[in-house]
Design goal:
Layout: E1 3-7, E2 10-13, E3 18-25, E4 33-39, E5 46-51, E6 58-60, E7 68-73, E8 78-83, E9 92-99, E10 108-109, E11 113-118
């Protein structure tokens, strides 16, 4: 089992920046691929970004490519999402997730952190 706790969400103006974090505990963090997802009101949860266990490979949704950066610090068992040039449509609850292999479904989820971008 992996426990995931997000933090760092909040209210920011359009064009601003925010960094959210996901602290993991319970198992060896570096064994897991990590991802970020988000869910806006009335919409399905969608993929935002993912990162390989060693941080070498990263993947982004087209809607955030060039604006968001995913990273991880295995020594701190923490994953990050740096969000720049935020837009009102980025408003959502952001969830971190973990899985044991690239070709598996995400198995562990955090409780989410709210990000609100005002226009």
């Amino acid at each position: 089992q992996v426990q995931l706790v997000e933090s760092g969400g909040g209210l920011v103006q359009a064009g601003g920046s925010l960094r959210i974090s996901c602290a993991a505990s319970g198992r060896t963090f570096s064994n897991y691929y990590m991802g970020w997802f988000r869910q806006a009101p009335g919409k399905e949860r969608e993929f935002v970004a993912a990162i390989s266990w060693n941080g070498v490979s990263t993947y982004y949704a087209e809607s955030v490519k060039g604006r968001f950066t995913i990273s991880r610090d295995n020594a701190k068992s923490t994953e990050y999402l740096q969000m720049n040039s935020l837009k009102p449509e980025d408003t959502a609850v952001y969830y971190c997730a973990a899985k044991r292999a690239f070709n598996r479904e995400y198995e562990f989820w955090g409780q989410g952190t709210q990000v609100t971008v005002s226009s």
